[in-house]
Amino acid sequence: MSHEQTASENSFPxxxxxxxxxxxxxxxxxxxxMALVSVVRAEIVEKHxxxxxxxxxxxxxxxxxxxxxxxxxxxAFVGNRLRGTLGAALCATAVILPSFFLMxxxxxxxxxxxxQEVAEKALSAIIPAIAAVIANxxxxxxxxxxxxxxxxxxxxxxxxxxxxxxGIWIVAAIIVGAATVGMLRFxxxxxxxxxxxxHKNPVSFGLGSWLAMAFLVGCLxxxxxxxxxxxxxxxxxxxxxxxxxxxxxxxxxxxxxPMVQEAVVGAQxxxxxxxxxxxxxxxxxxxxxxxxxxxxVGYKVAGIAGAIVATIAIFLPPATLIVLAANQLxxxxxHAYYKAAQSGIRAVVCGMIMAAAVSLLRSIDFSGGLEEAWxxxxxFGVSLIALAGFKRDEVWVILAAGLVGxxxx
Length: 409
Known about the structure:
The chain has 409 residues and is mainly alpha-helical. The protein contains 16 helices and no strands.
């Protein structure tokens, strides 16, 4: 049975099944961003065969162009593709919940928490394993994304630009340039046959789309106008701040750090510098997206209710935007020009995924020479062999790496 046939047959998984899949992903996706995306790809494409690689890469490209956390936006894209708006909401919620509860627990006891050294030892071993997971995802995607020399060249250029230049404008330029090359390079058929993944009845800009647009405009308006409004509710202030900022976070979660620091430490004075640093450090320790640090801030400001409001505000608007954009793009997905553009985009997405793996490896501390760095390099090599050679599950590879980190001196 072909992969395409299997994906088609499983195109409508139950909501409960989706929740369990993404909750599991949220429990083990340390590193956020491409780490989480790579585990999503392994579960959805390889293990459960619900979508194809090209569909996942379409979601990654769209998420990179839109504001908000790339990984959670990709999850929302996948959920929307499988089960519509409800699927998007359920999958995004499921993947965030493990990090939310962990962060809530850390925020409650972090002053008395003395296990930070243990967590750091585990994390130092998990990072190279995550790099292996990401590299393995890129290797698996290369079959469809890189069919010829031109695609390999595009992927190499994209990886080089990400590693040595970086920045959201570079990402945008890479994707636009790749789309242009794709349309110029590939001969376009005069026929515009509907692809196997296109809906027979493309999504129209109906009432739901207008409501989503109104919600997004309202979030931005509230953020811009809030200083002039006489509102004393801390929950309302949290929602206004994080919902507005979430729609300005082009470039991923790390752009969030200086923005939120200026807002909650400088402007609002809700957290001290040390407390803010703790929120970022704990966001790194938990699996899932770094933006889960908003939960810590919300808890500090308004308790559990504040944690819930801040978490919803930082993730909901970008997820709404990507579902809205994906539904409208679905209307043109059967056109030959769109397909040609996507062929170029998928090549550079594969290159950017490999760049993410290299970036994680570059974070290994070589200041003490190979004698100190070799355990992490060995973990990367063994993890990649286990994943690519022995087809081991990403979850067990990550957990095993964390255990090794705890045992290392």
